[in-house]
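Re: that backbone. Tokens:
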């Protein structure tokens, strides 16, 4: 016999709406890990490329945890100097340095009873890593310029796009801190590994605009690798909304590097009409593109990656267009 337990997870959705949506296998497997990890108090390390939604995942962990009624305190570790970071994290006492006219509580204190989210923990200076480790090991910390230690009560969630294993080998990240925060790692899948979620994500991004993508535009988006992940998708959709006068977002409203835009291939090497392979014959634009692609492929000395860069399109888009051009040529 089999027993299936179905537990609701209100922090994510398989339909358009909300901020954490998806229904692909990669997304649901990540959600299962989030649910399992959220029930405990162990530190969780969120791994993944920039733009995959690590802060949304951290908030989902907090909301599903026993500390959901407490505060969720995010800390951006990038761009903070050593002194400023220590003061922000642990606070400082009055008179501890020039300009410290009053006591300032730190973010560790602000997270009491809740979750402390350290985003981009790989950017924490080495000198502060040992202090952070001491807080995690002892549950105590001391504000800058204070002689009295204070107790810390928070659940730690960290995130990074860096390879912490490699940083440990290079001695730029403490090994003992790595093992302390890496108790329960969760990898967030890049958008290219969950391309079936793109229509759902687009519907969510377009929920307040009364516009929608055509099937051809969706196909172009599904073929893109999205190095910027969901952040890049949001940028593309918001730009397309501004460029669309009607209700339907078409391929020409998408960036040219996706294969959309006014013209998806580079101009011919010569403006002389006689230099074109088809002379001064007037042709439909689609046929011009196909003829030009076949023509330029025969003359380009490099590989397809170099050709795609020269034409201003992705390698996948070039492959699709070349395949269509060759198929049309063979059928004719």
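Recovered sequence:
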């Amino acid at each position: 016999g089999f027993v299936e337990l179905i537990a609701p997870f209100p922090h994510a959705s398989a339909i358009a709406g909300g901020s954490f949506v998806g229904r692909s296998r990669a997304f649901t497997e990540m959600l299962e890990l989030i649910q399992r990890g959220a029930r405990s108090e162990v530190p969780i390390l969120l791994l993944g490329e920039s733009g995959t939604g690590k802060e949304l995942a951290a908030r989902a962990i907090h909301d599903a945890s026993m500390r959901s009624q407490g505060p969720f305190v995010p800390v951006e570790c990038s761009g903070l100097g050593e002194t400023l970071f220590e003061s922000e994290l642990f606070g400082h006492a009055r008179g501890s340095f020039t300009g410290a006219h009053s006591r300032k509580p730190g973010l560790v204190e602000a997270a009491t009873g809740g979750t402390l989210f350290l985003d981009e923990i790989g950017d924490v200076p080495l000198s502060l890593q040992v202090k952070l480790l001491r807080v995690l090991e002892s549950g105590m910390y001391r504000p800058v310029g204070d002689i009295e230690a204070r107790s810390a009560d928070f659940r730690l969630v960290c995130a990074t796009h860096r390879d912490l294993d490699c940083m440990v080998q290079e001695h730029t990240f403490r090994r003992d801190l790595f093992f302390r925060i890496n108790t329960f790692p969760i990898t967030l899948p890049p958008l290219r590994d969950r391309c079936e979620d793109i229509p759902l994500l687009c519907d969510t991004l377009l929920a307040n605009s009364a516009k929608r993508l055509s099937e051809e535009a969706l196909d172009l988006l599904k073929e893109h690798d999205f190095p910027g992940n969901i952040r890049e998708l949001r940028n593309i959709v918001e730009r397309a909304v501004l460029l669309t006068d009607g209700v339907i977002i078409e391929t020409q409203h998408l960036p040219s590097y996706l294969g959309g835009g006014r013209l998806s291939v580079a101009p011919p090497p010569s403006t002389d009409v006689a230099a074109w392979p088809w002379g001064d014959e007037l042709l439909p634009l689609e046929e011009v593109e196909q003829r030009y692609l076949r023509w330029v492929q025969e003359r380009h000395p490099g590989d397809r990656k170099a050709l795609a860069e020269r034409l201003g399109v992705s390698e996948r888009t070039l492959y699709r267009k070349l395949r269509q051009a060759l198929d049309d040529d063979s059928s004719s």
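The chain is about 40% helix and 10% strand. The CA atoms of residues 266 and 311 lie 5 Å apart.
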